[in-house]
Amino acid sequence: MWGYLIVLAALLFALYKACGGGGGRSRSPNPFPADSRRPPSPLVTDKDARSSVLKRAFSREKVPDRLDAIVIGSGYGGLAAAVVLSKAGRRVLVLEQHGKAGGCCHTFNKKGFEFDVGIHYVGQMVENSFSRMIVDQLTDGQLQWAKMDSPCDVVILGDPDNGKKYYMYSGLKEHVDGLKKQFPDETAAIDRFVMLVKRIGRGSSHMTLLKILPLPLVRFLKSTGLLGLISPFCGMVSKSLSEVISGLTANADLKAVFSYIFPTYGVIPTQSSFPLHALIYDHYLKGGWYPQGGASEIAFHSIPIIERAGGAVLTKAPVQSILVNSQGEACGVSVKKGQDVMNIFAPVVISDAGIFNTYKRLLPENLQALPGIQSQLSMVRHGIGGFTVFMGLRGSKEELGLEAKNYYVYPRNNLDEAFISYMNSSRETAAKIIPFAYISSPSAKDLLWEKKYPGKSTLIILTAARYEWFEEWKEERVSKRGEDYDDLKNSFMEALMETVFQIYPQVKDK
Ligand SMILES: Cc1cc2nc3c(=O)[nH]c(=O)nc-3n(C[C@H](O)[C@H](O)[C@H](O)COP(=O)(O)OP(=O)(O)OC[C@H]3O[C@@H](n4cnc5c(N)ncnc54)[C@H](O)[C@@H]3O)c2cc1C
């Protein structure tokens, strides 16, 4: 109780200071003074019209004057930051190294099909919910969401032909009832797990609070152990997912079902932090939603807001370094254009390029060496790599019987063991022991798909992979990496396709 009061008082103080209280900085304009939603415009399918938003290549002339901020990277993290600043009247330049904006939200076209690379489904898009309200305001209500089927996720343990299937229904009550029906002897464990998921997962807002509170207060709360008492999310951060679920049940299938969503954040149950898992599990409790028109709609509806405020989102703009002034403050970036390097200045620089790129590649060497930077770097490592198969199919969703749901296929119910032996195997044997496949049909989830690609469908299959298996070809060009590379890639692809054919046999000749 006292802890909460201290945190609340500090929060109010921090807000007071942030609003210019006590004679500090001047008040920032409110980025959301009114509801900015407009009725959604029709889907833009014209290639040139889309390219003029998503593929504006960098040139000196396109850089706006008097910039207020530069954002490195056009993933949704970067775009969302740029949109909020733009809505507050700031002029922002987003620089993207790739030829198309969107980062993990971008889509690509191949052989007459469109594929998304990173966003396969999003939770908590219930109309008028807090998260939906944020996304609606960030896209002026132009981004529409299609609700997926319930069950939204199907977990298969064993062979898809004769293994066990577990259904993850959408909605708290439906989800819990569904699990209890599938595990009638485990009702207490299910209640306890879902209670923990809700309580701990929803406490993730405490992490935001820690960013707002004055740093000395955060340090005090942490060093005295008060933080763990005030926030169950922070208190359980060092508990692994395996540790928590082993305390709830001995049923191996149920443990696998509780853990099924870990590939979305890429850390195995013995090594993942329970609060992170709870956050993601809770995120999908009400089901899944898909951005109508495909994932590229996210960037497509964000960029015009940045442009309207005088900013720009430019592609083919690899940032080489962050420029720093004599006081050690970021003051701009240098961008590579052909053989030239161009410096662009702004009082604020935001990096969406990830911690390793930002600290190890973009910061000047003397800053990289700072103890604060080194200490942050020592706490993180790269996540597991991924391998994706993109399948283009003849036939509509109805003709092929594709569904707006995801399959998580695990050949074994000990997910950790299966992953560890796979990741430790050689590249020659790995494809024979693939521990997990995520299978989903983006076209079946997209209510607007038929407008763009009538009579066609897509499937995406994802698994984990080790970078080292493919490292040998890192300097070679795409499509020119030779026979050995193709053979290795095909060994994974064929194994994954076999799994797809067990779930959707009707797509075999399509
Ligand atoms: C395979 C996969 C599946 C996923 N599925 C889902 C899902 O179903 N649901 C979900 O919610 N999330 C999913 N995610 C996660 C989600 O896509 C990401 O968390 C989110 O999109 C990350 O956004 P970001 O802005 O942080 O980074 P990114 O999208 O990675 O953007 C970073 C951008 O920075 C650019 N960049 C890097 N260095 C430079 C430089 N020097 N100069 C200029 N630009 C630079 C990159 O090119 C990139 O465009 C998935 C991710 C992956 C990889």
Task: Give a written overview of the molecule.
Its main location: endoplasmic reticulum. It is found in: Endoplasmic reticulum membrane. Pfam families: NAD_binding_8 (PF13450). It is built from 24 helices and 17 strands. With 510 residues, it is of the alpha/beta class. It folds into 3 domains: 1-19 and 172-248 and 267-285, no CATH class; 55-119 and 295-378, FAD/NAD(P)-binding domain (3-Layer(bba) Sandwich), CATH 3.50.50; 140-170 and 382-510, no CATH class. The strands form 5 sheets. The protein has a 6-stranded mixed beta sheet with strand order 7-6-15-16-17-14, sandwiched between helices. A 4-stranded parallel beta sheet has the order 9-2-1-13. A 3-stranded antiparallel beta sheet has the order 10-11-12. Residues 1-8 and 19-25 have low confidence and may be disordered. The protein binds flavin-adenine dinucleotide.
Broad structural category: alpha/beta
**What percent of residues are in strands?**
15-25%
Query: How many helices in DSSP terms?
Result: 24
Number of strands: 17
DSSP helix fraction = 40-55%
Features of the shown structure:
510 residues; FAD/NAD(P)-binding domain; 3 domains; six-stranded mixed beta sheet; four-stranded parallel beta sheet; 17 strands; globular; disordered N terminus; binds flavin-adenine dinucleotide; NAD; oxidoreductase; NADP; All-trans-retinol 13,14-reductase
